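writing this on my phone so excuse typos. first protein, seq and then structure
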Amino acid sequence: MNLCALPGCCTAAGIAGGALLIRVQHFGQRSRLLRTPGHTPGHSSLLVKLSQMGPAILSGDAVHFRENYDNEGVPIFNYDRAQTIASIQRMKQIASNLKATLIIQHDARDIGKLPEFPAFAK
């Protein structure tokens, strides 16, 4: 689905650092969808800019464990190996450029960086 085709959903879209960035109103002006194909053809991750924590990338299924991220390892069940590696490299570049915290959502070590519900990261 093209999110920018939804009325009032996106305020801007563009390319930065090789990643498609889309400003999504539903997440506010401080968030961007990052196109990170590989796990699936249309996979996206989320970049959020929090007032206290700073920038954070929520990987979704782009990366499953820290070891996959560090070593650019690709699970056999991913849709496209080359796209997965390119997405990992893109996330690394964005994280480096923005000094962002990467949250690998399948890795308990990263989930532990976030406050427990009902609290939330700020």
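second protein below, same order as before
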Amino acid sequence: MSESPDSTPAGKREQVRESAKKVGEGFSEMRDVAKDAAKEVAGISKERAGELAGELENYIREKPIQAVLIATGVGVVLGMLLRR
């Protein structure tokens, strides 16, 4: 009885190598997709942060006393929380 090339230990090793290569390529593709998605999210977040900063600046210009009181209240609460 003759063994087929795939049933020999060398054939099995080659199959494992090919499978590992395919898995590695799949991970590379997934990494690239995740990297692109992260860049897109970072861009959107940066854009939104800029919009919020502009809105905050406008609010402070329109209502400076309220802004100072709110900032003071937030500072007091954070101070109490961090002290514990």
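The chain has one domain: 5-83. thats all i got for now
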